[in-house]
Structure formats: structure tokens, C-alpha cells
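[job 4471] stage=fold_predict status=RUNNING
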Amino acid sequence: KLIVSGVGKSAHIAQKLAGTFNSTGIAACFLDATQALHGDLGLCAAGDLAILLSNSGQSDEMRRLLAMLKRFELSIVALTGNPDSELARDADLRLIYRVPREACPLRLAPTASTTAALALGDALAMVVLERRGFTREDFARLHPAGNLGTALLLKVRDIMRTGDRLPVLSDDHAVRDAILGMTKAKAGCIALIEEKSGKLTGILTDGDLRRHILIVPDFLNQPAARFMTRAPKTVPVNALAVEALRVFDHFKIDDLIVVDEAGRPAGIIDVQDLPKMKLL
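[job 4471] inference complete, writing C-alpha cells
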């Protein structure tokens, strides 16, 4: 396992880095350098890897912890601003950052140095993530809650309208049949299909109806396919819900047909369904 340790303000950075590694699939734990010397060394075992954070690399607690971890046969990575320190000298691997001065007007409070340590630690975590081939799907499994988890886990099939709420009609039917289907499903559109294959051929929306009803003679008895939008925007049934959101946002449409692998309507998403996604 990975152990990340520091003392003082470096301990806060170490705790954050341990969290970053955990969230990207590396089992990590934070070890307070002071508490380690009073019993928490029981966390450590031979073969573990320890990242030790110390700007000076010379604090008494860190020097003593370094000696104990060596005795426990841990591999040591030093993350420090002092390449000449005991920590840097005795570590198996050194990650050195250079900060000419702290941001503090007194040049005393750890500010620039802690920021540099955090940035370098995060960079290390991202390199490890990339080398391990960590994917969005891996990330989603570790972040199931909140907007982040929703964006990565919620799928189109989880929020699409199906069954009686999915209006579908063969494209050789009349406009009046399409209106009846839309009304029954309480939808703002209807998916038109090729009768034999069931594949989607187009979409007829209430906007299409309004644009033509007053100017086309005998409109209700005209073929619905005459007024449909051919090759409408669609989204696969297994797509992430956030992908559907991007389609709505990019094309400024009100209805989106969900299709299966064969190109047949499997569901429909209305723009009014978007708040349920909790992605806005």
C-alpha cells in the first residue's frame, strides 16, 4: 500500500494527496508523522511505499520517521524543497521543488512551498493514473455519489421514456394518426419508423405540425413522412446521460430519440426531462 506522511502544514498536503491517490485507484493512507512515533507505525509493513513531505527535509519528526520506516523496510519517496536535506539524501527517490521564498510577507508561513508540494504531488498522481490506464469508467466506480457520480454513471436508458410514453408510428400513416399517437403518449413528438424493419426514419414534432397545419390543404390526411425530419439526432441506448445533454445543448432541440443497436426507437427524452438528470 501507499503511505503519505507529513508534519505541520505539510501534513495537510499529505492528507489531500492520499485522498487523490485513493480516488484514482491507488490504495493510500495518511500517516501523521508525530502520531506515527507514538504507535501509528503499526500501519506500516515491509514492502509498502511511503511518500514523505517536508519543505526543509530536516524536521526532527520527519528525520525520526524516516529512520523508522527504513527499519520497517519501506521504500521512501522524498517530496521536499531542500535537495541537500537528510530526507532527500536518504530517500530511495527524490522529488524536488524549488521555492525561492514564501508568499507570506514575513517569509515565514508555509504558503508557496505547500502549494508547490501539492502541485508536484498531484502531478505524480496523474502520471501514475495515466501509466496504469485508469479510465473514466474506473473513476465512475469510485465516485458514485454527487453530480460527478451522476455524470459518469447515469445512462440514457435510466431516464428515457418508454412503453406508453414512447410514441412510435409507421411512416406510411397520416398526420392525424401521428397527432393521436403524440396525444396518447403526452409527448411533443413522435418517432416514425419503417414498418417492416422497425428502424427509425424520422421524427415529427409539434413544431412541424404548427408550421404546416394552416398552409397545407387537407393537412390531417397527408402522409406524416412528408413533414418529418429525416435522419434526426439520436443517442444510443447505452450512452451516458451526459452525452444526451450535450446533444440537446449543441443542437438546441426539444426531443431526442434513443435508438438500439439496430437503429430502432428504444425510448425518447424530452428537454423537460433534463432536470431529472441532475446534470444541469
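[job 4471] summary: The chain has a mean pLDDT of 94.
[job 4471] exit 0
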